[in-house]
Write a structure and sequence with these properties.
There is one protein chain. Helices cover about 50% and strands about 10% of the residues. It is α+β, with helices and mostly antiparallel strands. It has an eight-stranded mixed beta sheet with strand order 1-8-7-2-3-6-5-4. Strands 9-10 form a two-stranded parallel ribbon. The protein is globular. The protein binds adenosine-5'-triphosphate and magnesium ion. The site of adenosine-5'-triphosphate has 12 residues, from helix 8.
């Protein structure tokens, strides 16, 4: 198939907007005789006039070849092998053109069959994510009608949606993610397939689903995303305890203002709070409904809550769980269970204490009666506080 080509005066992507390291990686691969393009979310975001979060590159070179061209690179992944080229903190992801049977409904367990550039586009999820950008010719290359879908603000799978969702149910979460983030419509067939296939989400790898949920918490569109996850019944499938909480609370749900505040922070400061802090926002309101009377039962109760919320599907990394327990239990240093005021306003000696204070910041933003107490804990004399945390670099 001949792709449609869009030139610079049509697509209006300015070359300067492209990350210079990504540009360098493409040039270098081409000098070595390989094909290489910018692809996926980066191209989509540039066309939408947004700042891309990351720049992915697709190439004809095999992972081993890429690895050999860039000294500063590592091979990663098994299910999906690719190369990370590192420039300081920054990582450019380079993946080899792949092929895939887009009609088959079998669950994909491994995806390392090399292919042509056209095949590589066809195995991608949505048409808006299937565009190549060639920085040398400054053209957008479109095999899937992604360009018109972007201007129509339309989400459409590449290939038959039911098969594509059954192959990889995580794509349904990604569909809700793009709908929430961009406010795009779903194409009718894609929408029908979502309704048909949504319960298949439990067949995907929990770690991948958790990663998408965490990314959405950090995205600046967490509120609309969790709302739609709830509306489609997928919240109940993935996180049953949270699903019933949403059902029971409807519009009075205290998690919603937390998410809304997280979205505001991300949009204003273009960097997200700590991931575990974001997770704790989903748990804190549930914990408040089952607080024990004495503080030595608190930790146990928090563990029980975490088990309940994340089981049976997810397995939380042990470190994440430990941090969650700390963040949640520390809240009751700020607002003791017995209702008395703390004797001093010193933060616990723990590197995560500032993050715990940040959770308190969320609570106080949502319940203004906590404001005076929050300010006592957030004294500049304690040197650090959420105002400083804010400026810290994103972790993890
Ligand atoms: P984000 O802005 O959240 O990073 P993204 O579209 O860039 O969104 P990535 O996870 O970074 O998402 O993936 C990069 C590209 O890889 C996508 O644009 C898409 O082309 C392809 N892709 C990602 N996940 C899938 C999937 N599950 N199935 C098919 N293609 C996928
Ligand atoms: Mg991306």
């Amino acid at each position: 198939v001949q792709p449609r080509i869009y030139t610079a005066d049509e697509h209006r992507i300015e070359l300067e907007k492209i990350d210079r390291h990504a540009h360098y990686v493409i040039q270098k691969l081409r000098e070595e005789g390989h094909a290489a393009y910018l692809v996926g979310g980066g191209v989509r975001d540039l066309l939408l006039g947004r700042r891309p979060k990351d720049f992915d590159i697709s190439t004809s070179a095999s992972p081993e070849e890429v690895r050999q061209i860039f000294r500063n690179s590592i091979l990663i992944g098994r299910r999906f092998r690719l190369v990370h080229v590192r420039f300081g903190q920054k990582v450019i992801e380079v993946s080899t053109f792949r092929s895939g049977d887009i009609e088959s409904s079998d669950l994909i367990v491994r995806d390392n069959e090399w292919g042509s550039e056209e095949e590589d586009v066809l195995r991608r999820d949505f048409t808006i994510n299937g565009l190549f950008y060639d920085p040398e010719k400054q053209v957008v290359i479109d095999y899937v009608d992604g360009y018109p879908d972007l201007s129509r603000r339309m989400l459409r799978t590449i290939g038959p949606p039911e098969a594509r969702f059954k192959q990889d149910p995580v794509r349904m979460i990604r569909l809700l993610k793009f709908a929430a983030r961009f406010g795009f419509e779903m194409d009718e067939q894609t929408y029908q397939a979502l309704l048909e296939c949504k319960s298949a989400i439990l067949q995907s790898a929990p770690a991948r689903v958790l990663e998408e949920l965490l990314r959405m918490l950090e995205s600046g569109a967490a509120l609309p995303f969790f709302r739609s996850l709830d509306q489609y019944g997928m919240l109940k499938d993935l996180l049953p305890a949270l699903g019933s909480y949403f059902e029971q609370k409807k519009e009075d749900n205290p998690i919603l203002p937390f998410l809304s505040l997280a979205d505001d922070l991300v949009q204003k400061e273009s960097r997200a709070p700590d991931r575990t802090l974001l997770l704790s926002l989903l748990l804190f309101p549930l914990l408040q409904e089952r607080l024990p009377h004495s503080s030595h039962l608190l930790q146990q109760e928090i563990h029980r809550l975490i088990d309940e919320v994340f089981s049976p599907f997810f397995l939380l990394p042990r470190k994440t769980r430990a941090i969650l327990v700390f963040l949640l239990s520390t809240q009751f240093r700020f607002t003791p269970l017995d209702g008395k005021e703390a004797r001093s306003f010193r933060l616990p000696k723990d590197p995560m204490a500032i993050t715990a204070l940040e959770l308190f910041y969320f609570r106080a933003a949502v319940s203004p009666d906590l404001q005076p107490l929050f300010h006592k804990w957030n004294q500049p004399s304690s040197k650090e506080g959420p105002h400083r945390t804010r400026r810290r670099r994103k972790q993890g």
